[in-house]
Amino acid sequence: xxxxxxxFKTVEEYLxxxxxxxxxLLLIVRDLIRKIAxxxxxxxxxxxxxxxxxxxxxxxxxxxxxxxxIYPIPLGDENFQKAISTYQAGKGxxxxxxxxxxxLALIKKIxxxxxxxxxxxxxxxxxx
Length: 128
Prior knowledge:
Elements: H1 11-16, H2 20-36, E1 41-45, E2 48-53, E3 56-63, E4 67-71, H3 78-84, E5 94-97, H4 104-127
Antiparallel strand pairs: 1-2, 2-3, 3-4, 4-5
Helix pairs in contact: 2-4
């Protein structure tokens, strides 16, 4: 998505401005997040779509001219780090071309690791 001064109030509003093919990709990502983290709440944060879980931001997803991005990248394990290396773009960001098939299995892993990290943080805060 081109940079805009518009402040989005809902994810639906954000999605409504996207080209059809980009919107479809983000809807796939959104549905995966909803299935893996059904208790997460959909929000707009930093003017892009995100999900919150346990009061903390879980994962962001956004559209750009040539790609979609997911942030932040969870730590995961060594195999996971190897799998995401070709998609990494800067600290904490992963990019997927809008002209290629989404690596759904990898995106599922990203969300699962994000949920795990979120839940571990929530547990450690409760213990304090």
